[in-house]
Amino acid sequence: MEFDELLLERKNRILNFIKSEDYKTAKRADICVMLQVPKNDRPDFDRIIDALINEGEIIETKKGKIMLPSELNLVVANFSATAKGFGFARIPDSNDDDIYIPEESVNGAMHKDKVLVRIVTPALGTKKAQGEIVRVIERARSEIVGTFEEGNGFGFVICDDHRTPDIFIPKESTKGAVDGSKVAVKITKIQTGNRSPEGEIVDILGHKDDPGVDILSIIRQFELPQDYPQEVYDQTEKLPEEISQAEIEGREDLREKVTFTIDGDDSKDFDDAVSLDILENGNFELGVHIADVTHYVTENSPLDKEAYKRGTSFYLVDRVIPMIPHRLSNGICSLNPNVDRLTLSCIMEINRAGEVVNHRIVKSVIHSHCRMTYTKVNNVIEKKDAEQMAEYEEFVPILNDMDKLRQILNSKRKKRGSVNFDFPEAKIKLDENGKPLEIVPYDRNSATNLIEEFMLVCNETVAEDYFWRDLPFVYRNHEAPNEEKILAMKKMITNFGYHFKGQNELYPKDIQQLIEKTAGGRYEHIISRIVLRSMKQAKYQDENLGHFGLAAKYYCHFTSPIRRYPDLQIHRIIKENIDGRLSEKKINKYRHTLSEIAAHCSVMERVADDAERETDKLKMAEYMQDHIGEEYDGVISGVTGWGIYVELPNTVEGMVALNGISDDFYNYEEENLRVVGKHTGKIYMLGDSVRVKVIRADAELRTIDFELVSKEEKKKD
To answer: How far apart are CA 571 and CA 577, in angstroms?
Structure first.
């Protein structure tokens, strides 16, 4: 349900009143009297109450009394299903453990649904609380994607997400699907007892073996956008391909300043460019110039509404689904070489200690002098490659100065305790039919770090500036781990011979020092994973809470408005402030809406991460299908009660099932992150190097199965 600004304000007022100590359980009519709701506004009041009920914020009893869920032992939570039928409910923004939901208490809820849960048995010691789902507040997905299997006059859809049960499809609802069709299904009857949920097919995506249908299925599974509404195209077509002199008026003209972009070899949209000068006092003047997307994506326009809905661009293994159309992202908004472009620039004076001693944020116009790549720039600053230095001859002195600044900024960040998790990321190369040809780790080098350092210092500078202006803003927050997570992490790392000095509190510097101690050792990536799992997720919020991982007091996302809506949103605020258009009315509007905008963007970021991860898992499994029987050296990356996860050097991860290890029966020791042979005492623990053989790979299930190769077998080879 959408609310305008006035209704949203009233909604917050009503909810805050119900949550206040002054409120005593009352009916709707009584609340109207207490809040002095005019008679003409009663329909809006009822609409707001209905919305709060639907969102699970309040409960209306059979007697018409309005209460908070907590007063009835109810909580709003997100449901995580398992393939075995039971699941867990997690209360958002809470340090409480998950609530165990037995299979018989799921009551038709599906994976990631927002649900209302009644606590049946409170938590006791290490035992989780147990609950039952009273109501599904919001379905995570309106459609389910899976593979159709024909029956005798009916069919079943085997869902791609195997935490969702098979769906029965009556004959009249098959829509002509045949055995093996990939389909999208709408649930018409929820699961009750042993009875499967029932549904109707709303779309046939193609046969499961057709090229491209596998990725299309994931796109539909996560309900990613596939096209833009016509009004977005209509608005896009009216936009210019070049900037005019009138648009340059009132902007700082930086076109003569040597400016360039540095991106990946296959990048097509460039939303950041950099420049550097050495000032007379010896300080660096770093310019970070960001595409002025809001000049074209105007507030509340079709483009803006669609960009907000998407929240981000989606980078899948075989395609990019952009936040804004390619005509903008690759065209007038992209800082392409040798053309004038409108930008928002953060120009910083940075001393030799890496401190930003002065800065200004201005509307500007630039002219990128060159489109550089990470590979070539690294060849210049790191490898001093003669051919590349000749190609970039006029820029080599600037690049060398930039590298000096990079090292200074990196050192400063390191000293304050900023944590670097250097996990290898996979780059999956496909042929024209989408078949995976090669999987290699992404190359991280001095050039990628250079841009990273420049963007980090820019984001911090902008965030600190607007924090002290006390204006509405969107921050990128990363809170410290909670006490339980810290204790669990400390216990785990002692198994590997490491420990933290402090007892109660944990600082970023402590984690950084631990990561440095393990660098280059056998447990480097394992310790990093243990630490990362203890961390909270970073998120967007309208209040500044700091960034624990970066050890930064102030942080935001300013540098990628082509692909992230939070960046676009704060550009709009910054420009309104520069132009003197940030009126009291506008400020109040932002104070009421930014929280919801930030929360939505955080949700869409998670959707993007999940979808990207699933496409990677799919193609990794497909790749390993051609390597059945082959052996690899790997590292144990996870240990559970059902199997050992092993990661290969190319980042592919597979599982060795415990019941498939034939030399003994293995017991799982959760506290020590290991399994131990009952008779032999043989131990397999997190971080151990092992040799495995690929025995199975299932692209549909997105799973890879290994078996351990004993040392004796390895010697025979």
So the answer is: 10
Q: Tell me how crowded residue 342 is: count the other CB atoms within 10 A of its CB.
A: 22
Residue 680 CA to residue 478 CA, distance in Å, equals: 45
Distance from C-alpha of 42 to C-alpha of 144, rounded to nearest angstrom: 39
What is the Cα–Cα distance from 592 to 583, expressed in whole angstroms?
14
- Do 332 and 236 lie in one domain? The reply is yes
pLDDT digits (tens, 9 = 90+) for 29-73: 999 988 889 988 899 899 999 989 888 889 988 899 999 988 888
Confidence of residue 483 (pLDDT cuts 50, 70, 90): confident
In a domain, 511, yes or no: no
* DSSP codes of every residue in 583-648: -HHHHHHHHHHHHHHHHHHHHHHHHHHHHHHHHHHHHHHHHHGGGTT-EEEEEEEEE-SSEEEEE-
Within 338-482, residue ranges assigned H as helices are 374-381, 386-391, 396-416, 446-468
- Under 8 Å between Cβ of 26 and 65: yes
Contact yes or no for 89/99 (Cβ under 8 A): yes
Task: Give the residue numbers spanning the domain of 573.
Answer: 230-475+552-612
Query: Which of 120, 138, 156 is at the close of a domain?
Result: 138
What's the token pair of residue 494? 């002692």
Structure tokens at 117: 């849960």
Query: Is there a domain that residue 217 lies in?
Result: no
Residue 453 sits at φ, ψ, to 5 deg, of -65, -40
pTM for the predicted model, two decimal places: 0.87
Residue closest to 632 by CA, chosen among 651, 648, 645, 655: 648
Q: Which residues lie across from 653 on neighbouring strands?
A: 647
In this structure, the answer to whether residues 267 and 312 fall within a common structural domain is yes
Where is 705: in which H helix or E strand?
strand 703-708
Residue 458 CA from chain centroid, whole number? 21
> In the prediction, which pLDDT does 4 show?
64
- b/e for 120-138, b at 16 or more Cβ within 10 A? eeeeeeeebbbbbbbbbbe
Say how many residues make up the chain: 717
Q: What is the pLDDT of residues 63-108, one digit of tens each?
A: 999 999 888 889 889 999 988 889 999 888 776 778 999 988 998 8
Whether 320 and 429 share a structural domain: yes
Across 499-609, the runs of DSSP E, i.e. the strands, are 539-541
Please give the Cα distance from 475 to 271 (Å, whole number): 20
Q: What share of the chain is helix, strand, coil (3-state, %, to 5)?
A: 35, 25, 35
Cβ 318 vs Cβ 252: under 8 Å? no
Q: Are residues 402 and 469 in the same domain?
A: yes
Is the same domain home to 114 and 159?
no
Q: Give strand pairing partners of 349.
A: 285, 358
